[in-house]
Amino acid sequence: MKKTILLISVLIFTFAYANAQQQSKKTDENINAPEIKFETTVHDYGTIPLNGDGNCEFKFTNTGKEPLILSNVRSSCGCTVPKWPKDPILPGKSDSILVKYNTHRAGIINRQVTVNSNAKTHTVVLYIKGKVADKTSE
Length: 138
Known about the structure:
Layout: H1 2-28, E1 36-38, E2 42-49, E3 55-62, E4 70-75, E5 80-83, E6 94-101, E7 107-117, E8 123-133
Parallel strand pairs: 2-8
Antiparallel strand pairs: 1-3, 3-6, 4-7, 5-6, 7-8
C-alpha cells in the first residue's frame, strides 16, 4: 500500500513539474519579437563566365514589432563572402545581405549562407547555386 501511494505521488509530482515547464516555455516566447522575411532565400546565377560577376543580394524586411539584429552571417566555404548590416533594422524597415562568390574556378555553385538573428526564427539558411563555365566550353 505504501509503495502504491509513493508511486502515485511521484507520478503526480512528475506530471505537475512537466506541465509547469511547458507553461513557462509558452510564456517565454515574445509575441513582439522581430521577424525576418526574405524576398527569396535562393539565388540562381545560372551559368556565368569564369571570373564573372559573382555578386548577389538577398533583400529582407523586419516584419516584427521590435528591432532586428543580425548577430552573425556565415558561409559554407571561403569562396563565398557575405556582408550584412551591423545596425538594428527597425520594424517595417528593409535591408539586404550582399554575397560575393569567387568565380575564379569553373564548376557547379552550390553554397549556403547561414543567417543568425534575434528574430522568432533565429536561423535562416540562404542558398546560392549555378555554374561557372569553363573557358574551353564557351
